[in-house]
Amino acid sequence: MNIQPDQRAVVLGRYILENKATVRSAASKFGISKSTVHKDVSERLKREDPVLFAQVKDILEINKKERHIRGGMATKMKYEKIASCKHTVSR
To answer: What DSSP letter does each residue of the chain carry, written as one string?
Structure first.
């Protein structure tokens, strides 16, 4: 992604808004670090497009509130997978 940081912040903000994406998923999509995405949407976007910033901030707050649920679900799926592998192997 070879564009100016301020332009990148707007592109990231639009992506997060349109896809209800997390910082991590946006970073993965655009091939940049989570730190860069966070800095872009929390600092640069505020200067560049305050309206978009407010919308993105709301989505990131929702993601923050749901973070513990996603972690729990990932752990649950991990152990279910391990259990099913053990069950398959023991047959």
So the answer is: --S-HHHHHHHHHHHHHHHT--HHHHHHHHT--HHHHHHIIIIIHHHH-HHHHHHHHHHHHHHHHHHHHHHHHHHHHHHHHHHHHHHHHT-
